[in-house]
């Protein structure tokens, strides 16, 4: 599962920074890319396997899911303007920038409510839903984020 997750993320990242190359070119780019886009041979081969199974509908769904995530996070940020300093990212890789350096606490509060997010910096909470997530999953996640804001003292 970890190799497949890494392959999925590599494919998503590459498709949003450039037109999707041929599979052989993708493997070459993955092996030569700078961090955080770099991938070793195992992940490159896994990414190639993922690409062979993917269809245009799947890429379109990833774009749609990313837009739903962006809109949901923007709505929460607008609802709690004192808690957030900004929103950034693209596709299904999004980050909320907190107004105060409390990201680890925010992450833990989300996790305690069943939502897995990351805290890559003291003031950043990262969201990266799997491609199997649904619009309902995004809505549920946004409800959790709003709960954390109201109950966790982030206002």
Q: N-to-C terminal Cα separation, in Å?
A: 37 Å
**Overall pLDDT confidence:** 82
Order of helices and strands: HHHHEEHEEH
Oligomer: single chain
Low-confidence segments, ≥5 residues, pLDDT <50?
Answer: none
How many separate helices? Answer: 6
Number of strands: 4
**Helix/strand structural class:** alpha+beta
Major beta sheet summary: 4 strands, antiparallel
The percentage of residues in β strands lies in: 5-15%
Shape, principal axes of CA atoms:
elongated
Helix content: 55-70%
Question: What is the topology, as strand order, of the major beta sheet?
Answer: 1-2-4-3
Radius of gyration, CA atoms, in whole angstroms:
16 Å
Description:
The protein has 155 residues and is of the alpha+beta class. Helices cover 58% and strands 14% of the residues. It contains six helices and four strands; from the N terminus they run H-H-H-H-E-E-H-E-E-H. It has a four-stranded antiparallel sheet, covered by helices on one side. Helix 4 runs parallel beside helix 6. It starts with a helix and ends with a helix. The mean pLDDT is 82.
């Amino acid at each position: 599962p970890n190799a497949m997750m890494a392959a999925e993320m590599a494919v998503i990242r590459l498709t949003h920074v450039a037109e999707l190359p041929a599979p052989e070119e993708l493997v070459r780019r993955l092996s030569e890319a700078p961090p955080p886009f770099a991938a070793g041979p195992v992940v490159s081969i896994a990414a190639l396997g993922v690409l062979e199974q993917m269809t245009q509908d799947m890429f379109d769904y990833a774009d749609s899911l990313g837009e739903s995530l962006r809109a949901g996070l923007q709505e929460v940020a607008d609802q709690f303007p004192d808690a957030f300093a900004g929103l950034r990212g693209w596709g299904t890789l999004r980050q909320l920038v907190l107004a105060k350096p409390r990201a680890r606490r925010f992450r833990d509060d989300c996790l305690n409510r069943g939502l897995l997010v990351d805290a890559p910096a003291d003031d950043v909470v990262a969201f990266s839903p799997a491609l199997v997530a649904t619009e309902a999953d995004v809505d549920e996640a946004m409800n959790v984020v709003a709960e954390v804001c109201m109950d966790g003292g982030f206002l």
